Amino acid sequence: xxxxxxxxxxxxxxxxxLSKQSAIYTVPLQVIWGDETQRDGIxxxxxxxxxxxxxxxxxxxxxxPSPAAFxxxxxxxxxxxxxxxxxHISSKLSGTIDSAQQAxxxxxxxxxxxxxxxxxxxxxxxPVLLAARAAEQGATLKECKTLAEQACRxxxxxxxxxxxxxxxxxxxxxxxxxxxxxALNLKPLLELRGGRIEAVERIRTMGKATExxxxxxxxxxxxxxxxxxxxxxxxxxxxxxTLLEKARARFSISSVSQTSxxxxxPVIGVHTGPGxxxxxxxxxx
Length: 285
What we know:
The protein is of the alpha/beta class.
């Protein structure tokens, strides 16, 4: 029986305690800061990134991995006898998946399947973990791909940002452009929908924004169980911890099968800015 390895990218930022026992391999995106090019989560950690961002005169940009980076990890895994399922950040937010597809084209006979999650962060991370668990239990490459695609369809992300400045400057603002020009004291609630960042509502304070965020998560989840929740944050761990605690209280103990707190990777933080907090869910899986 062939074994299946999961490849994802650094924007998933799956907490180490969740991924360490699975065959999950990460290809880093890059943060470009002046003359420096740093690999996301390797050369720069979220903690160091957000600390530097607070006082930086030159603001960073980002870059997708090269096809060569994907080809290298694919060849390494193939040499170990793996078939490969590669699950990545929404193609509407990054060219990462295009690099993965180019690498696959360089290995035309190799058993590689690629999935556009239309998500990022732990909205993508939980589907990756579910597929990795299935692989460990002997699922085929086709079965793992089907599971990952289904999990992605049953996942979502809603988040609040302090300002739209970073999304606007980075060209990732999508439907949230409707909120540009909003009074500075209003906090935009945004979500990933169809792979794009879309506007949800404008709330006066971050506290009220997180309460409304919880209402919306309840609506999106509906009656589906079990539920996997992750509070994600860009240098705002205390707020994320409070958000996750409140989220747990919204659902019955028996409904929630997994919770976690995850940092927003530096590459995503370039676009959200510091202080962003959100909640991801995977429901019915």
